[in-house]
Each structure stands twice: as C-alpha cells, then as structure tokens.
C-alpha cells in the first residue's frame, strides 16, 4: 500500500452554510502525512459536512481543500483519490466480498490481473481471505466493516476518510476494531481523517483531535493536550469528565492566578487567565485531579461525601461542597471501607485543566 502513504491534507478557510445553518465556519486544518486525525464533536456540529467537502460530495461555500499543497476543490469525487468508509458500510449486497473489493479498480478501468492482485492483497490486509466468496449478509458487523475498509483501500486512495466507523458495532467488538484499524493505519501510513462523537475513541486512536462545536474549530491538538489543557470550557466539558468549582480571581502573578473558593480558601491554580481580579471564574479539575481524605491540612477543602460508587479497582465519590455544588472524585480503592460523611477535598498540584469565565451570574444581574 506504499503508493497510498504519506500525503498532506489541508483545509484552508473552509466554510459551509445550509441556508441559515453554518455547518462549517472558516475551518483551518493542516494534517500531516501519515497522521490519524479525529473530528470530534456532538451531533450536528459539522463533522460529516467537513468529510463530504474533503471527499467532494459537497462543494464548500468558500475555502479550499489541498492535498500535498495542491488544490483539489475543482476535482470531482472520483478524481480526488480519496477513500471514504461510511458508518453503515454501504457494501453492495448482491456482490461477494471479492466482488465488492474489485468494484473500485474495475470501475477505474484497471486490467484484470492487476485487479485480482489488489483484491488478494486487500483480503490479506484485512484478514478476510477465507471469506472472499461470501455475501455481505453472511458476515458479522466487524467482518462487513473490514470488507468496507478493503474496498476503500483497493482504489489506493491518498487520503482515507472514516465516518463514525464503529458506531454500528457492539462495545466489545468496537475496541478490537479500533485497535485493528489503528494498526492498519500505522502499517500503511495512509493519512486518515476519522469522524466520531465518542471522546474515548478519539483520545485512544488519534495523533491529533480537532474538536468542533457548531461549525467552529475549538481546538486542534494531540489527545493529551485536549485532555490536560483544553482550550475552552466546551472542550473541557465535552472531552472527559469536568468538575467546575465556582470561585473568584483573587490575584494574578507570574506563576498564574490564585482563586478564592466559596468557603473563602485561596488556592494557587498554576494556570494563567485573561480575567481580572474579582471576576467570577470556573476552576476545572478532572475527577482524578483531586483526592478526598478523612484528615485536613493545608489547602484542604471541607466537604461531605454524598454518594460512593465502587467501579472495580477504583471508587467514585460524589462530594458536596459548602456552596451546595458537587464534584466527582476518582481514587484507588483502599483496603479499608470507603470514606463517608464529612471529609476533606484536596486539589492535586498542577492538575487544574483550565480557568474559564463564569457567566452563570450574568443573566441574574440583567434580570434584576
Ligand atoms: N443537506 C443538508 N441540508 C440542510 N442542513 C444540513 C444538511 N446536512 C447537514 N445539515 C445541518 O448542518 C449541521 C451539521 O451537520 P453534520 O455535518 O451532519 O453534523 P455531524 O456530522 O457533526 O452530526 C447540522 O445543523 C445539520 O442539521
Ligand atoms: Mg455525522
């Protein structure tokens, strides 16, 4: 599959409107050769629209799509050498596995010997050689997906597009297929753009994730940055679990902002903010960025455990703070019985993922 490997894909100022709905708003993405990039966001945020624009099924309102620096926006779908696997696979039901895979090369006018060789190669790549004469309905969901992928790769695409590729698979099979597709992608080195609304899938599989919200690109970064350094409150709450502590900015120094929590305690966040002193702020911390204990100490926040959920090796505590808000804390299950009643909450150093403006009081102020 070496001819397919290593092409750069660029979206430059891509916008698309369906009437009043802006499905893509000036999206810029530079995808490196061989990268696996996920487009992640809630239903309706514009993921499929971007994929269709890249594939040429939809002509963007403005902006340009480039492969290896050359515009492909003027090319029809079948001249772009871009392969797309849809979420329902869309195999030809009356054709065998081998015929499905041969479809693309035959339509492209490839000689029979070459087509046969490609079909054999692709059957091996997706480990489906033993099933070559079966019909799609005689295959499991995972097998159908392998065939859909093989059929797509048989045209030697420069770019591979996957639209919610695992959504039709049950949970156990999904992880197997995720690992398999990632392995295939690595082996082939084919630049891949995958659409998903599943944050774990995006975090687990991607080199970089583009998080979208209502047609806007919120952040484009490696999974660890998206998780640890989300660029917006939207990213922080859409990816992973977010606890949001209400506070006000108490001071700003070179090492970051200090905030005052509801119980009056001031903590150093280690994070920068553009907010000014006195502004209402939401302090975002992941469940594993905090710890509860029976004993207090410096920086400990008084709280009360209101629910405990044991999940295998870990415990999830729901902890309620003095202002009535509650947070979730995940920690390792100790030999002793879980904590209960009044406890202390500790923020681990450098684990605050962000400081975001708190607008929750604004409507109240305006209303009065
Ligand atoms: N053919 C269409 N006509 C009108 N509106 C559309 C069309 N396709 C998508 N949209 C709208 O554009 C927005 C983005 O849709 P889509 O790209 O399918 O989102 P996603 O794949 O992230 O769920 C949604 O508001 C959707 O309703
Ligand atoms: Mg979609």
Structure description:
The chain folds into two domains: 2-237, Rossmann fold (3-Layer(aba) Sandwich), CATH 3.40.50.300; 242-367, Nucleic acid-binding proteins (OB fold (Dihydrolipoamide Acetyltransferase, E2P)). It is 24% helix and 35% strand. The protein has helices at residues 47-55, 97-107, 112-125, 141-153, 171-188, 199-205, 223-228, 233-238, 362-367; strands spanning 9-18, 21-31, 36-40, 62-67, 70-71, 82-85, 159-163, 191-196, 208-213, 216-221, 243-253, 256-261, 266-268, 280-285, 290-293, 301-311, 314-321, 326-332, 341-347, 352-357. The strands form four sheets. It has a six-stranded mixed beta sheet, with helices on both faces. Strands 13-12-11-14-20 form a five-stranded antiparallel beta sheet. A hairpin with a 2-residue loop joins strand 1 and strand 2. The termini are far apart. The model has no long low-confidence stretch (mean pLDDT 91). The structure holds adenosine-5'-diphosphate and magnesium ion. The site of adenosine-5'-diphosphate has 11 residues, from strand 2 and helix 1. GO terms for molecular function: ATP binding. This is Spermidine/putrescine transport system ATP-binding protein. Residues 9-239 form the ABC transporter domain. It holds the Pfam family ABC_tran.
- Give a quick account of the main beta sheet: strands, pairing sense, barrel closure: 6 strands, mixed
**Number of helices in the DSSP assignment:** 9
Low-confidence stretches: none
Cofactors, ions and other ligands in the entry: adenosine-5'-diphosphate, magnesium ion
Residue-averaged pLDDT, rounded?
Answer: 91
Which assembly state applies to the chains in this document? single chain
State the fourth-level CATH superfamily of the largest domain. Answer: P-loop containing nucleotide triphosphate hydrolases
Radius of gyration based on Cα positions: 25 Å
> How many structural domains are formed by the residues?
2
CATH class of the largest domain: Alpha Beta
| Percent range of helical residues | 10-25%
Dominant shape: elongated
The tally of strands reads: 20
Which class do the helix and strand fractions yield?
A: alpha+beta
CATH fold-type name of the largest domain: Rossmann fold
State the separation between the terminal residues, measured CA to CA: 66 Å
The neighbouring-strand order within the major sheet is 6-7-8-3-9-10
Protein name: Spermidine/putrescine transport system ATP-binding protein
Family: Belongs to the ABC transporter superfamily.
Organism: Xanthobacter flavus
GO molecular function, one term: ATP binding
């Amino acid at each position: 599959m070496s001819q397919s490997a290593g092409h750069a894909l660029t979206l430059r100022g891509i916008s698309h409107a369906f009437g009043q709905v802006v499905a893509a708003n000036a999206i810029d993405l530079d995808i490196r050769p061989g990268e696996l990039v996920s487009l992640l966001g809630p239903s309706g945020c514009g993921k499929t629209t971007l994929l269709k624009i890249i594939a040429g099924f939809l002509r963007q309102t403005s902006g340009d799509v480039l492969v290896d620096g050359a515009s492909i926006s003027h090319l029809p779908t079948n001249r772009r050498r871009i392969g797309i696997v849809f979420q329902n696979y869309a195999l030809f039901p009356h054709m065998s596995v081998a015929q499905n895979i041969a479809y693309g090369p035959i339509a492209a006018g490839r000689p029979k010997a070459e087509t046969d060789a490609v079909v054999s190669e692709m059957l091996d790549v997706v480990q489906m050689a033993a099933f070559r004469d079966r019909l799609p309905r005689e295959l499991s969901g995972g097998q159908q997906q392998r065939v859909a992928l093989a059929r797509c790769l048989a045209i030697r695409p420069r770019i591979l597009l996957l639209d919610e590729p695992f959504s039709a698979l049950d949970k156990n099979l999904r992880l197997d297929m995720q690992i398999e597709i990632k392995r295939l992608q690595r082996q082939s080195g084919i630049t891949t753009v995958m659409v998903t609304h599943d944050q774990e899938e995006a975090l687990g599989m991607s080199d970089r994730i583009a998080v979208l919200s209502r047609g806007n690109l919120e952040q484009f970064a490696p999974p660890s940055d998206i998780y640890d350094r989300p660029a917006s409150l939207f990213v922080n709450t859409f990816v992973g679990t977010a606890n949001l502590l209400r506070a006000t900015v108490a001071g700003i120094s070179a090492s970051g902002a200090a905030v005052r929590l509801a119980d009056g305690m001031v903590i150093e966040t280690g994070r920068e903010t553009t907010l000014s002193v006195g502004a209402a702020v939401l302090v975002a911390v992941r469940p594993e960025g905090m710890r509860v204990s029976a004993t207090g100490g410096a920086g400990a926040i008084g709280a009360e455990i209101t629910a405990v959920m044991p999940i295998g090796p870990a415990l999830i505590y729901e902890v309620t703070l003095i202002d009535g808000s509650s947070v979730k804390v995940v920690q390792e299950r100790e030999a002793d019985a879980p904590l209960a009643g009044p406890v202390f909450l500790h923020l681990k150093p450098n684990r605050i993922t962000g400081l975001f403006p708190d607008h929750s009081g604004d409507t109240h102020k305006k209303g009065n």
